[in-house]
């Protein structure tokens, strides 16, 4: 047994209009849905690239390795500590750039 959809209910918006019946124009149909604004991932990466590069430099100097290996070390440290890579890089750079107290 098929569910009967009456036109007044469809006009009031309680139910979708039956097949073959257009939505009433007086209600204007569904309001337009704005496109979600998603930040460009490349822009975010570029924003944090300098501090990550500095952290890589610190690791390269300490472990005497290349940039790719330094990034892998940084990434492993980030995963092990469960801290975002950029946050870990910022902390490393702050630690190195603080003046020593003697």
CATH class of the domain at 50-97: Mainly Alpha
Secondary structure: number of strands: 0
Question: Can you tell me the residue ranges where pLDDT is under 50 for at least 5 consecutive residues?
Answer: 5-13
User: What is the CATH architecture descriptor of the domain at 50-97?
Assistant: Orthogonal Bundle
Shape: elongated
Radius of gyration equals 29 Å
CATH topological fold name of the domain at 50-97? Arc Repressor Mutant, subunit A
CATH H-tier superfamily of the domain at 50-97? Winged helix-like DNA-binding domain superfamily/Winged helix DNA-binding domain
List the total number of helices.
4
Strand content: under 5%
What is the N-to-C succession of helices and strands?
A: HHHH
Main structural class = mainly alpha
Span between termini = 88 Å
What is the mean pLDDT?
75
Please summarize the sheet with the most strands. none
How would you describe this protein?
The protein is mostly helical. The protein has a domain at 50-97: Winged helix-like DNA-binding domain superfamily/Winged helix DNA-binding domain (Arc Repressor Mutant, subunit A, Orthogonal Bundle), CATH 1.10.10. Helix content is 55%, strand content 0%. It has four helices and no strands. It has helices at 7-11, 41-63, 67-81, 85-97. The N and C termini lie far apart (88 Å).
What characteristics describe this protein?
single chain; mainly alpha
How would you summarize what this structure contains?
This protein is mostly helical and 102 residues long. The protein has four helices and no strands.
């Amino acid at each position: 047994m098929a569910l009967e959809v009456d036109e007044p209910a469809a006009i009031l918006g309680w139910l979708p209009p039956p097949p073959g019946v257009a939505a009433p124009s007086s209600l204007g149909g569904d309001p337009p849905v704005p496109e979600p604004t998603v930040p460009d991932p490349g822009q975010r990466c570029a924003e944090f690239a300098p501090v990550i590069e500095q952290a890589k430099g610190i690791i390269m100097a300490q472990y005497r390795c290349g940039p790719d290996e330094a990034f892998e070390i940084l990434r492993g440290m980030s995963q092990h500590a469960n801290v975002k890579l950029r946050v870990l890089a910022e902390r490393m750079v702050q630690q190195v750039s603080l003046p020593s107290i003697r």
